[in-house]
Amino acid sequence: MRRSSARDSGSQAKLRPRLRWLIFAIGAGVLFLRFGHALHDLKFGDETALLTLPLGAVLPALLIVALLAMPSARTLEGTLMRLGTVIHLLLILALPPLALHLALGLPVVFLLVELFQTRVPARLRDPLTRLVIA
């Protein structure tokens, strides 16, 4: 049975501000690279990268911004699931050839967070959690 921590009992769990900015900067950088790649390919007559840009790059980037702009989660597990989803969306944004496979594997993020919270020993779980949660 899982013991509840102090964060689970009412206090807000939120990502560290530096981590939020780092995620935002990485996402913006990858998005600009994707735009540059699409324009480069368009210059040589290939429209595919430009046509896939809205769903393959802009939508994941908007979802990342929306997840980072949301108010703090009530539980530590909710914040970790949100962080896992953001990292997963960054992977979808950065790896276009694997985007479909990654998108289909999104439920694995929630399973991994649940396993992390329930099966990893507290002496390992707590320091790792403190790295990302303020």
Tell me about this structure.
With 134 residues, the chain is mainly α. It has one domain. 74% of the residues lie in helices and 0% in strands. It has six helices and no strands. The chain has helices at residues 17-43, 48-69, 76-94, 99-104, 106-119, 122-132. Helix 1 (17-43) runs antiparallel to helix 2. The model has no long low-confidence stretch (mean pLDDT 88).
Short précis:
The protein has helices at 17-43, 48-69, 76-94, 99-104, 106-119, 122-132. By secondary structure, it is mainly α.
Question: What descriptive keywords fit this protein?
Answer:
single chain, mainly alpha, 74% helix, 6 helices, 134 residues
* Span between termini: 26 Å
* Beta-strand share of residues: under 5%
Low-confidence stretches: none
Average pLDDT, to the nearest integer? 88
**Helix/strand order, N-terminal first:** HHHHHH
Helix content: over 70%
Broad shape: elongated
Largest sheet: none
- How many structurally independent domains? 1
Structural class estimated from helices and strands: mainly alpha
Number of helices: 6
Tell me the total number of β-strands.
0
* Cα gyration radius (Å): 17 Å
Topology of helices and strands:
Layout: H1 17-43, H2 48-69, H3 76-94, H4 99-104, H5 106-119, H6 122-132
Helix pairs in contact: 1-2, 1-3, 2-3, 3-5
